[in-house]
Amino acid sequence: MAERQGAPGFGETGREYKRQAAMSKSLEQTALKNAKADKDQKTMVTSYGLKGSENSQPDEEFKGLIAACEADDRRAMIKVAKAFHTGDGLPPSRDKNWGKALYWLEKAVRTRYEVDESSSPLDDPCCKLVAMQASLYYTGGPGLAKDVKKSGELFKLAAELATKDNRGDLASEYSKQSKEAWQTLNKAVKKRK
User: Fold this and answer.
1) pLDDT band with cut points at 50, 70 and 90 for residue 185
2) Same domain, yes or no, for 142 and 175?
């Protein structure tokens, strides 16, 4: 029997999403297990009076997430992006950096679902990730300059992606935010004149 290509058929969707969730959980557990093994090794070195620190563990876990990102794990990219955006989940040695958040969001959008099959389109659709990028540009923040024009363009793209995904409510919301960004930009231009 020939192997099927493409999306799962009717009735297979539930099994497919469960399979994807299990794969993602397995990847996350492996990354955490590797980070814990590294921490145990550093703790052992510390107990013998050599180098290492009790506080290195959160940084090691975060480094494990970064390694997963570099291995095209879309879910890890989104976690890291959100951590750099909000500061939640960042180790003490790192600061919020919206430029880095933007980098990982862009990479997650480019990765989509072709490379990382463990991510379900229901988890973090590209339209939401692009809208998140637009929001970052709209206000600017640590490590990222405000760019209302780019924000308007990205909200428009988010609306188009939401329309393609049959997410009318999101498409309408992003379209409205795009118009607001363009209005803000036009007001700023008029003030300069």
Assistant:
1) confident
2) yes
Residue 142, pLDDT > 90, answer: yes
Flag whether 19 is in a domain: no
Can you tell me the mean pLDDT for 33-40? 51
Which of 102, 107, 106 is closest to 68 using CA atoms? 107
Overall average pLDDT of the 143-148 stretch: 92
Domain of 108?
56-116
**DSSP state string for 73-96:** -HHHHHHHHHHHHH-TT--TT---
More confident residue, 161 or 117: 161
- Burial bucket for residue 96 (CB in 10 Å: 0-12, 13-18, 19+): middle
Q: What is the mean pLDDT of the chain?
A: 75
User: Where is the domain boundary, 90, 116, 142?
Assistant: 116
**Residue 109 burial (C-beta neighbours within 10 Å; 0-12, 13-18, 19+):** buried
Q: How far apart are CA 156 and CA 174, in angstroms?
A: 7
Domain co-membership, 111 together with 147: no
Domain assignment present for 121: no
CA 52 from centre of chain: 30
| Domain shared by 134 and 152, yes or no | yes
